[in-house]
TrEMBL record, chains A, B:
Basic and acidic residues: bias regions: 40-54
Positions with a binding annotation for S-adenosyl-L-methionine: 325, 334-335, 388, 415-416
InterPro entries in UniProt: Arg_MeTrfase, Arg_MeTrfase_PRMT5, PRMT5, PRMT5_C, PRMT5_TIM, SAM-dependent_MTases_sf
Presence of keyword Nucleotidyltransferase: no
Residue stretches spanning the membrane: none
Pfam families: PRMT5, PRMT5_C, PRMT5_TIM
Annotated ranges, domain PRMT5 TIM barrel: 29-290
Sequence ranges assigned to domain PRMT5 arginine-N-methyltransferase in this UniProt record: 298-460
Entry protein name: Protein arginine N-methyltransferase
Molecular function terms, GO-annotated: protein-arginine N-methyltransferase activity
Span list, region Disordered: 39-59
Domain of life (superkingdom): Eukaryota
Active site residues according to the UniProt entry: 431 (proton donor/acceptor), 440 (proton donor/acceptor)
Amino acid sequence: MSRLFVGLETPFVQDLPATLNKVHEEKMNGVAAPLFHPRFQRDDDGLSDTRDGPQTRSDLVLDSRGWTASVVGVVSKWMDLDATTQRVRLSAEKVFKQEVAWASHLSVPAVLLPTPRHAEQSSNYARVLNQSLTQAQYLQFWVRILLTPRQQSCAKAPMETDPVAGLCAAAAVMETEENKHEALVDPWETWDSLRARCEYHPKLFVALEITADLPSAEVVQRWLGEPVKAAIVSTDIFLTNRKGYPALSQRHQKLMAQLFQHKVQFYLSGRPRHREKMLPYVQYLHFLYSKLPSQDRKTQFEAPYLDYLQAPLQPLMDNLESQTYETFEQDTFKYNQYEKAITKALEHTPDDKESVVVVVGAGRGPLVRCALRAATLANRKTRMFAVEKNANAVITLRNLKISEKWDNVTIVASDMRSWRTKERADIMVSELLGSFGDNELSPECLDGAQSLLHENGISIPCEYTSYVAPVMSSKLWNEVKVHDSVKSFETPYVVRLHNFYALAPTQRCFQFTHPKFNTRIDNRRQAELRFVAAESAVVHGLAGYFDAVLYGDVTLSIEPDTHSDGMFSWFPIYFPLRQPLRFQKGEEVVVDFWRLEGNSRVWYEWSVAPGSGTCHAPIHNPNGRSYWIGL
Amino acid sequence: MSRLFVGLETPFVQDLPATLNKVHEEKMNGVAAPLFHPRFQRDDDGLSDTRDGPQTRSDLVLDSRGWTASVVGVVSKWMDLDATTQRVRLSAEKVFKQEVAWASHLSVPAVLLPTPRHAEQSSNYARVLNQSLTQAQYLQFWVRILLTPRQQSCAKAPMETDPVAGLCAAAAVMETEENKHEALVDPWETWDSLRARCEYHPKLFVALEITADLPSAEVVQRWLGEPVKAAIVSTDIFLTNRKGYPALSQRHQKLMAQLFQHKVQFYLSGRPRHREKMLPYVQYLHFLYSKLPSQDRKTQFEAPYLDYLQAPLQPLMDNLESQTYETFEQDTFKYNQYEKAITKALEHTPDDKESVVVVVGAGRGPLVRCALRAATLANRKTRMFAVEKNANAVITLRNLKISEKWDNVTIVASDMRSWRTKERADIMVSELLGSFGDNELSPECLDGAQSLLHENGISIPCEYTSYVAPVMSSKLWNEVKVHDSVKSFETPYVVRLHNFYALAPTQRCFQFTHPKFNTRIDNRRQAELRFVAAESAVVHGLAGYFDAVLYGDVTLSIEPDTHSDGMFSWFPIYFPLRQPLRFQKGEEVVVDFWRLEGNSRVWYEWSVAPGSGTCHAPIHNPNGRSYWIGL
């Protein structure tokens, strides 16, 4: 996790270097400051400039590094892009574009935009913003959104603590009757309408204004699925502790901890109400940050992969590399479970004869080691076979046989589906599972290898199940969109989901068991799952997980509710949707999923639609046109 | 410049960790070591493995980091991909692919491939290599190429110092009669044929074997335009200094200095002939490295931009950002020249009246400052105008007018082509030149602004000329090819050329002068330039440069032979060719260049062809379809 960023939201300051010095003295990292003086009102000729004096302070007051590292530009709040009179609207557009152009010129990382009016009343705001988003190259646009709608008039808007800005407050949109009504609307709806009209633009972010009243945990969770880049924390929401220092309520503390995990920048706003300095507030945020639990091994391992899309492995078609084996061999939890499962299974084999264990897909031998340890624990004499198709891994296995004296182990360089032998094993051990359980073709491989087992033989694993949940994540949707092709939207990705919101708990999708003697084998599947949206949200795709029974009560799981502690071999899988779909709170989300096969290939098709039938969504990946797994 | 890498080429070693320890003790960074034992000859069933023992040492002797950081895999030299009998060829192909697969498995950064036979005799080598290049994801392929052809039989091939490898030497291709003949062919031709058949693949590199005899300076220069990744330095080529330590000849020292500039890795090979250790050789190379002149400001500034393609600025259509102004304002040399030129020009204005200076395209004011300093130096009373179309830069100018008391300067927020005034200036100063002189539309802008000058008025600059040379650079060609579109191959790029070879000295292309009163203004141009290739080479594109006369004898130049010392405002410009063209030494390279205009646009078209007319090459960018500059 990166260092905590705490900045200050300031009124317009002429002497920016002096302000930054003070801010740095109080241990803050930068400021969010107005780009132009709020009294500098421009008419609709705003840009054809006939004035003699400069329109704002010079860019030379800081070098470009200073602007980039320490300043976010606040766009004038008084402009009204959705005013009823055209003259006011056109003038506001000129002001907006002039300020955005100036911000780009300065190379500040972002502009902080005023809170839009509610959805239906902000179409021109959305249009002007969408134009700017499309033109700007590096600049980010942060839209100020209240966490909870204000019940009262906005007497505490932070800018009003500035006497100069106060002059303009009379004109501010927040004060009108219309807006008092509007303030009761869910602010998320305002955001959702705006960003949907801007097609989920990747440079568009939320600056969340933390309010004294907090919404439900579910609503907070939904914000954590949104691209929140900044949190504006007014000094008004702080309580005072026994020593007279600022502190936050328990619920606010929890919220901060959640925001810390998402690399959000914090901007303090308003007047200091404790000891007349901002420093105690800054120190308090750093104190909360320091209370975060220190990172365990799994968290450290996962950190660089958060929300990073990877193509799923195709270990059947491609040979894994040494490095990949090396990474997965380090998952102690997983191999401990395998050791337990093999031990239990061996204990069920007769103790008066040699037990035969075949490891199929032995790789560089971690399951062979588990089986050898299990044989000792179960006190069984064993004969083992390690079957591996990757010629490179076979070199490792043969070296191990010598160096680790695997005298009872035979190395077999063959595809498990084609090895013919008269041996019949008591136990067949494999680790062919993917993030979605069956997506690395474990069913087909184990079916092809089950003739190696005698009729009462045991497969470890003996069962695995996939799980699905509809998720909102404009972050992931944009990552897929980078390639902007149907193919990329019809391909699942392995990804450590982080900036996302699940609209409902996961549901079971497909299940497979092994071995399957005396039954017709068919690994095609179909499932229709019906979810109920816990909050209004957008579905950008489906999150996939799996769990597996190795043997008896020994299991592995990456399903969120039952995730095996400390196991890091599998990230979730993400199936994108080409078009995001909006659902109301309580509405039914119908997910259809197929597992299909043909032409030596296996593939999935999927679709998502509202239960009401008001909208019909396309089925993704017909005939595996965009993504398939080779047999 | 990154740290010097010195490695050791070793015979096959079973105990790689021990060898690496010794190598690190002798201050070396890694090894180039055979992947398989040279005695491990495989038949054409090489891969369907029925042996019991491992085929080579285990990947587990190092972790994947160790393999990646410290080992380059040497592919067996004895295999003959172009043998006359099919059985030998097929067997060689299996060996080659097995070894490349093993190298990929290990995640070593590169394989070192044996020297191919001469062009016409290595078609199967090229085919097999091309297949591997297309499949491998990260692996680099380094082809071992002699710097000078060996006159004798190859008694000093480094592997033969190894007694085990010696067993195979009898079979080595180098020893046959056929190859003694072949050894007289220019090794560059062998390389050129191979890489052309592999379509200049970006993962294909040269490992240059440094010989005791060195080729001409021109041939060395040509190698510096090739993707040389490694230099193999035999202990045989070292002399002994008076203290008994190894040293290199002056010419070899110069070559090493050139290779250092290109981030080449060095691999020592052969037996130590001085003090029975490799350490003195390593120390000597580090000594040479330390003798490189330390980096001046310009070199440091340029380092991150070597061979990095940038789209040319379009300051007329786009507004420059504050950061861009900031960078260019730091070019002290350039502004000193402007100051000199304005001073001289002012000295030619009458001293009994106020001189009028107009700066067109004033940006954030650096030329205004030059003009103010020049007025003091020339002891002239002046009235100045700073004309700038970028509204953001006008804010800076107006702030400067106040803070720096520019009382005699008027700021004019206008496009220089449309400002109408009754003032007539004595001197018009501008800095509108691009890397190719006219490519940022200086001609059109200054023609449009010249009515601001009175009839004897002076333009600074008063003249500028573009220059062109045909260049070989598979590095740059591949950078363009990443986008793989006609558009990308018909766009010029601003780039600090580094890994390239100019086939001939630059020639003048287009020239422009200002002002142009009493003459028909036409800025269209055509030039046909005829170059003679100094060595056989491939033309991948054209390098463009410019020089300019500011006033009198005060000039600026980025043309290689006359480049102004320490000036860093302009990198060269690179016009790519869609298809690389091969020229023989002494052959004529005909370059046609046009500057054209229409529909408020200016664009270039260009083509390259042999003077013999044996090949007709397409004209690039017809009608400016891929690239144009907006007026």
